[in-house]
Design a protein that fits this description.
Blueprint: E1 3-5, E2 10-13, H1 17-20, E3 24-26, E4 41-43, E5 52-55, E6 59-62, H2 70-76, E7 82-85, H3 88-92, H4 95-102, E8 108-111, H5 120-132, E9 137-142, H6 144-156, E10 168-169, E11 179-183, E12 195-200, E13 205-210, E14 218-221, H7 231-250, H8 256-278, H9 283-300, H10 307-319, H11 323-338, H12 343-352, H13 362-379, H14 396-404, H15 418-426
Parallel strand pairs: 6-14, 7-8, 7-9, 9-11, 10-13, 11-14
Antiparallel strand pairs: 1-6, 2-5, 3-4, 12-13
Helix pairs in contact: 5-6, 7-8, 7-9, 7-11, 8-9, 10-11, 10-14, 11-13, 12-13, 14-15
The structure holds nicotinamide-adenine-dinucleotide (NAD) and fe (ii) ion.
Length: about 425
């Protein structure tokens, strides 16, 4: 059934933030005091009052066939001349044509000169085109690459200078023109996030532009548009969504709303990622995965991520490993390293993924979460290693060093040294 979600409220609760992350309480059976808290993990909300901020300014429209509603949504944001932003892959899949078709007689300009891991130069070209055609609404259709570019073209229509000036967090001064984001992969959650990730390919660098002013006005989620996604991309982007939900969940910056989103997202992924890969035409699985990726974005938008995403930036910019695949390679090894940082939550992840943890010690139950993700990876056909992308021992200093600079490291549940960061990469060569 189609449904709508909207929250323009910025929630702030006062209390003791540091208490929240540690407030899981184990209710241990008197007969088996050392056993894992299977069905016994309880969150105590009475002994600590959390402090947190949560902000989601994007309206969500979800439903099978909901693309048909695009004209009314464009009208609702005052759009009269659209820039439709896609990439060659979504053009080939017929998705740009479908979007333009739905818009009927509205003046439309198409911009699809975007590659995966888009270069900042694409933004420059898109802004020039949109200004020359006086576009007043951006419609991003595609995966993270197309949506990320559409969002920052919208921003640069009203803000001065160059998109490179806005690298980092909170640098955008003025709201841009409205953006409607239409995801066709179930991974990045760019339709909801504050982030656009861009490359400077000559410098072999990636940078993020993060701001609440970089959020789409509307996320139009039609799972039918993900049906043409090939199994390998379904698998990699699905693991990206999982990594968002999981890293946000165990992050030291997590908070109650994000936790709820993470748990629901992982539950849907546990149910449907294998199916979406094995049966690309399975509508329920496609719907679950699109919803899961959006929920995961709603989780991490307010918490940041962890070491897996810290690694993903240099692995993408230096070695062109697709984002989801980079995450999939590093996720199990990082999870195993992170276990001591939050045994209770890793045990809960094992439980979500259907691992039999009853009767295990808490440490063993937590370990089962890694086993669960390794078996999920195998079932969706991801076997890649870093070495296949030309990475050798000689690269580890540079990759680990760059990863250490990521803002995601500070909220990871365990604090690594540079040597540890290198060792985790080495394990996946
Ligand atoms: N904004 C964020 O918060 C955020 C978060 C994580 C990653 N990212 C960025 O997003 C980008 C990756 O996005 P992605 O993983 O969605 O991949 P992508 O957008 O690069 O798409 C991968 C490929 O799939 C094709 N494709 C997309 N939808 C299709 C469909 N329905 N049918 C057939 N082909 C289809 C695309 O044309 C492309 O060739 C990276 O640049 C990454 O850094 C952004
Ligand atoms: Fe990601």
């Amino acid at each position: 059934m189609p449904y709508k979600y909207q929250s323009r409220t910025h929630y702030v609760l006062d209390g003791i933030l540091s208490g929240w992350n540690n407030c899981a309480k184990l209710v241990v059976s008197p007969e088996a005091p050392n056993q894992a808290p299977f069905q016994c993990i309880e969150r105590t909300m009475t002994s600590t009052i959390p402090t947190f901020s949560y902000h989601n300014p994007t309206a969500i429209e979800f439903g099978w066939g909901s693309l048909a509603r695009l004209p009314e949504l464009v009208k609702s944001v005052g759009g009269t001349r659209a820039l439709v932003v896609g990439d060659p892959g979504v053009v080939k899949a017929g998705l740009v044509e479908r979007v333009v078709g739905v818009l009927g007689g509205m003046p439309v300009t198409i911009f699809t000169d975007i590659e995966s891991d888009p270069d900042a130069r694409s933004v420059d070209a898109g802004v020039e085109l949109a200004k020359s055609k006086e576009c007043d609404v951006m419609i991003g259709v595609g995966g993270g690459s197309a949506m990320d570019v559409a969002k920052v073209i919208g921003v640069m229509m009203t803000n001065p200078g160059n998109i490179r000036d806005y690298a980092g967090m909170g640098k955008i001064g003025k709201p841009g023109v409205p953006v409607i984001a239409i995801p066709t992969t179930s991974g990045t959650g760019s339709e909801l996030t504050i982030w656009s990730v861009l490359s400077e390919k000559e410098k072999k660098q990636k940078f993020g532009v993060g701001s609440v002013l970089n959020c789409a006005r509307i996320a139009l989620l039609d799972p039918e548009l993900t049906m043409s996604l090939p199994p390998a991309i379904t698998a990699a982007t699905g693991i990206d969504a999982l990594t968002h939900a999981l890293e946000s969940y165990v992050s030291t910056a997590t908070q109650p709303i994000s936790e709820a989103m993470s748990v629901q997202s992982m539950t849907l992924i546990a149910r449907s990622l294998r199916l979406a890969v094995a049966q690309p035409g399975n509508k329920q699985a496609r719907s679950d995965m699109l919803l899961a990726s959006t929920l995961a974005a709603m989780a991490f938008n307010s918490t940041r991520l962890g070491l897996v995403h810290a690694y993903a930036m240099p692995l993408g910019s230096r070695f062109h490993i697709p984002h989801g695949l980079a995450n999939a390679i590093m996720l199990p090894v990082v999870m195993r390293y992170n276990l001591p940082g939050n045994l209770v939550k890793f045990a809960r992840i094992a439980e979500i993924f259907g691992e039999p943890i009853a009767g295990l010690s808490l440490r063993d139950a937590a370990e089962r979460s890694v086993v669960a993700i390794e078996s999920l990876k195998a079932d969706v056909g991801i076997t890649a290693k870093l070495g296949e992308f030309g990475i050798t021992e000689a690269d580890l200093d540079a990759v680990a060093g760059e990863a250490m600079l990521s803002g995601n490291v500070a909220v990871n549940p365990r604090q690594p040294t540079l040597e540890t960061m290198k060792a985790l990469l080495r394990a996946e060569l």
